Predict the structure.
Amino acid sequence: MTIANQEADCGCFLSAWLWFNKLVKKLMFKVVDTASNAKKLGQEDPRRIVHSLKVGLAITLVSLFYYFEPKFDYEGFGVSAMWAVLTVVVVFEFSVGATLGRAINRGIATFLGGSLAVGAHRLACFAGSKTLEPIALGIFLFSIAAIVTYLRFLPKLKARYDYGVLIFILTFSLVSVSGYHDKEVLEIAHTRLSTILIGSATALVVCIFICPVWAGEELHVKISSNLEKLGSFLEVFGAEYLNTARGAASEQKASDLQGYKSVLNSKSSEEVLANFAKWEPRHGKFRYRHPWAQYLEVSGIARDCGYRIHALNGYLNYKTQIEQEIRTRIQEPCMKVSTECGHVLKELALAMKTMTYPLTIKVHIENAKLAAENLKSLLQANSSWEEIIFSEIIPIATVASLLIETVSYTIKMAESFDQLATIARFKKTNRFAPARIRTGSWKRKRVIPEQNTEIAHHHVIAVE
Amino acid sequence: MTIANQEADCGCFLSAWLWFNKLVKKLMFKVVDTASNAKKLGQEDPRRIVHSLKVGLAITLVSLFYYFEPKFDYEGFGVSAMWAVLTVVVVFEFSVGATLGRAINRGIATFLGGSLAVGAHRLACFAGSKTLEPIALGIFLFSIAAIVTYLRFLPKLKARYDYGVLIFILTFSLVSVSGYHDKEVLEIAHTRLSTILIGSATALVVCIFICPVWAGEELHVKISSNLEKLGSFLEVFGAEYLNTARGAASEQKASDLQGYKSVLNSKSSEEVLANFAKWEPRHGKFRYRHPWAQYLEVSGIARDCGYRIHALNGYLNYKTQIEQEIRTRIQEPCMKVSTECGHVLKELALAMKTMTYPLTIKVHIENAKLAAENLKSLLQANSSWEEIIFSEIIPIATVASLLIETVSYTIKMAESFDQLATIARFKKTNRFAPARIRTGSWKRKRVIPEQNTEIAHHHVIAVE
């Protein structure tokens, strides 16, 4: 019996030990995993580390400021200090635009909310009696909070001023509530405003003058890299689908072929960046009113082009189904269309990056259009396809029509880029180069409805 | 001269008057425009009005609470009142999940941040001298703020706990700063925590018990309506593209055909809703750990299907290019595929809405697969297309292959829905109905690589 008991005890202890061991190992694994993730984040973008140090610096600075300046009213913890520290923590964001937007929103909203609350308090004072005054204040509070909360649903207000509206409600409520006990409301509003201004100023100075991250530049780089990803796909696709290139550099190619996927879902992050960028002052190559909306337009067309590329990507893994004969015949124009469009997109990406007009783009567009016409006429020529089974042509026909669509999107993108270059005053590096794209003539031609049904596809591409 | 002067004066006055008039008109227009927009917002979704009233009520309640309970320490405005009011304003969100998430984040982060700050303060006290203590506190403040700000970049932490981490930094900073002047740090941390809990509780009670808006239900309804939009498109597309239905109810059809577009960019908003939904307790038909991630999977497949539908939509306006002969021949299978897929999607949407297993879905899927096979063999039959010019077939071939792809996505969606129904324990309304989809057999068949190249398209659809 005792031996059995001892064994049971041992078993109990052992299982507890094993459980504990497992838990520790699991915890250790999680900590190591998080640490390695954190390290990766820093390696991916070292600005993240700099940002963290900047936030630490700004908070310490604003706290030291209050330590060395004891003339501010310190009674009751942070009536002043608190708001400045709070402002730094809440306002400091990764990019200058986001920080500026928050700081300006917070400053103006505090001013307006405080003023209105002082006004409401004065108005409530007219009620005279001690019981009526808080009731009047309560009614004001309820109605202002409800109305302004409702206004937050307005899409235009939400996009740029949502934070400001929230702070407006906050300040109005805080100053109103203090009015219940008949404090000096004006002084409270004034203190709150001045401390918030000190906090915002500290955050802004640190954010702008120590390794600033500009939202506008982020957007600029992001859209340029989107164009480059699409271009890389198209450059590789022709060779890869038609299986002419073999062997070397296949890993590089695989990443070229998958890179486009991040373009498909980039809409919301780009809109956020554009909203931030609108707050930013002149910096580097960008003016104050740089046409960020036009960037979004270029990017929208790129995304539409990306959907077609997504469809093209579906045919990459089925290259073995195409017979050698068809492949040989269709190879040349398909490759031509794909690589020329790829060239155009890559050159647009480079031109955007360097903020110049693209140099050789017109030649490539002409080549792409010619190749697309070739491809179409090849598909339209009845005789040359007689001996081939129809079912084999369907995937090729789809690829061809997707490529033809891609050409028309490329042209649209070039047009949109041209508008951007004009508004943003990109540099013309060489005045003899055929830099400007003749937008007008294309547009005119594409609007004319074609009468004959020879042109099979719905995107009519006019060859000049 | 005087007359000329008078005239000049008159002109000046007139132009000023005109300018002022214009300004007033512009302002009036803007006000009227905003008001009509605001009215529309309320008509679109009356819950927005209710939400605004709820926010007003919660703020007034928490402020009244402090008015009638003067036992709280009121010195220096809002040492306590302020935090509770602030918490209500900042925590109260449109849906219960978002509010709960913020409240829980805020509560736990305040507790942790406050505890750590008290610990840091005690540790700094060991330094002994009056000059060393603030320096030690400053170093703590800088390093904690920097490290925790850096951790905010971790994607997992950012998705659900970003607000909590921010509040952690905030509380730690506030309590630390108050330590500079040797206040009773523990008391401050305690007051802050208790007032934040009161504010959170007020916000939560109002949010949950007065007309609650559940993020989970929003997501449920949204994804169900996404499926319905895709289904409506497919149901109408067959008839519309092949131009068999004419005249009546064309406006309804136009909206059916454009509705799918909102599906393409719904990813981020759905992810946000799913994150909120994870915070929500059991409500209505939804358990606490309802499989929200599976909803996102269904929606992801729906979006992939949506990209194909976006491509199909491009062919809608080019129906006149198809010759009567081709149309007559291809009409039947195309219509069949399109309408059957539409039926399946609409039934999935209905089943999701009512949280039951779909009843007749299997029949429709079989029909769609058969029709797709028909379509394929029709396209593969070499003989029947001999007299037709090739270029005319390209758009039809593309439409046909897109429709065939749609069938395979529909099947994937049905499989994914079946998994969702199993995990979420949807009701089986009729045990004799062929409710469950035989997932296994499809999967097995689709994995087997087909040897013959007869099946032209890359999505091999197995007919059971």
